Amino acid sequence: MYKVTQYLKTIFFTVPIILNAYITDWNHQFIIGFLLMSLINWYWWHGGLADSKYDHKLEFIEHYHWTLTMNISILILKILNMNFQPAIYGASLILWLDECFYQQHPFSIGSIHESKSDIIGLSLTILWFMLAAYTLLNKI
Q1: How many other C-beta atoms lie within 10 A of the C-beta of residue 37?
Q2: How does pLDDT run along the chain (140 residues), one tens digit per residue?
Q3: Which residue in 15, 31, 59, 99 has its CB near the most CB atoms, within 10 A?
Q4: In this structure, is the dihedral angle defined by the CA atoms of residues 134, 100, 90 and 26, taken in order, positive or negative?
Q5: Cα(40)–Cα(47) distance, integer angstroms
């Protein structure tokens, strides 16, 4: 049962990232966001910042929360007809890839703060679905 829950959770928190690829207006900004966030993420891990979240009791904030937040901002920018979406999508994709392939506990599965992290992830995912429905129903 634990493995099934693990796979469902991973899929559920990944759906916004995949679907935003269809909603985002693509241009060269994607590469800029992708490369910039690659550098920031590299510095996060290798510059000693990763441990600082434990010092501030923020260990339940995960890379995928930032990814979902960025994907929510993409929809808000689309609704406002502002065209930064590709850069933000490129940045969010780096954080999602990091979450999937580099984390000790991807999507906080098996971590001591899993329930706190799940509440944040679920809230952000529900908000994303509401904004995506608004965006698609209004053909923005």
Answers
A1: 23
A2: 556 677 888 888 888 988 888 877 778 899 999 999 999 999 988 887 766 666 667 778 899 999 999 999 999 998 898 888 899 999 999 999 999 888 888 888 888 888 999 999 999 999 999 999 998 888 76
A3: 99
A4: negative
A5: 10
Q: Which domain holds residue 58?
A: 37-137
| 25 and 77 Cβ atoms separated by less than 8 Å | no
Beta strands in the chain (DSSP E): none
Domain-located, residue 8: no
Structural domain includes residue 26: no
Of 111, 9, 1, 4, nearest to 53 by C-alpha is: 111
Q: Would residue 22 count as lying in a domain?
A: no
Residue 23 inside a domain? The answer is: no
| Counted domains in the chain | 1
Any idea which residue has 């960025």 for tokens? 70
Q: How far is CA 46 from the centre of its chain?
A: 21
Helix (H, G, I), strand (E, B) or coil at 131: helix
DSSP string covering 25-42, please?
A: PPSTHHHHHHHHHHHHHH
